[in-house]
Amino acid sequence: MYQIHNFTNNDDVKVLETLGPFTVVEYQRDLSVTPQSAQTAYFSAAMNVRRRQVICDLSKAALTLQAGAMQWMAGDVSSNTGIKGVGDLFGKAVRGKVTGESAIKPEYTGTGTLVLEPTYRYILLVDLSQWNGSIVLDDGLFLACDSRLKQKAVMRSNLSSGLAGGEGLFNLGVSGDGILCLESPSPKEELIEVTLQNDVLKIDGNMAIAWSGSLEFTVERSGKSLIGSAASGEGLVNVYRGTGKVLMAPIAK
Fold this sequence. Notes:
Layout: E1 13-19, E2 22-27, H1 38-46, E3 52-57, E4 63-65, E5 70-74, E6 77-80, H2 86-99, E7 107-110, E8 113-116, E9 122-127, E10 134-137, E11 142-146, E12 150-155, H3 159-165, E13 170-175, E14 179-184, E15 192-203, E16 208-212, E17 216-221, H4 226-232, E18 236-248
Antiparallel strand pairs: 1-2, 2-3, 3-8, 4-7, 4-11, 5-8, 6-7, 9-14, 10-13, 10-16, 11-14, 12-13, 15-18, 16-18, 17-18
């Protein structure tokens, strides 16, 4: 039996969102300051530059974390590497190499509480049922997820997508039924969601942070010809085609 005091019930800690096993909290002010850092901390809080943290209730679901994400845990909590054999290790190592994600993501089970490392990035909780069970992520967004979700390397629709689009050849794809926890460069309030129904979205720059696994991604010239693209000043654009959703930051990452 354990009890946690002066955490979520602290008047400096605000609960932002709870979904499935995840609760996101935000520190309204940084109180652990020195005279030299007090001014920076004051204006950071005013501009929404605040520490955020994820609290995980393992009694609701077993979880898979980005390597190094755990800060502390209490109660009945067990962990393992999530590796189910030599073949699984090889597959995850290859996936980690091509997607830029950690090859081994530890899995945690039990009935206790798990708290992740604080971050100044913005935390997004995504229910994959709202994405038809499949989502593709930009590099570096994955933080944690329900262990029932499956992860795989998703290759671009054509070679030019990786070479010309500045996105790399592979991304991390997550599928199944469960909740996904992401670290975003932009707050939820600024993210633009575009829903496509057998249509196309063209983006000039690396602005999409996540998109439905059902969409085809390519990199194409903005105009019908090289001369037209050069004249428009746009050049190559990232193109998402089909039926699904794209989550887009307001500025290029």
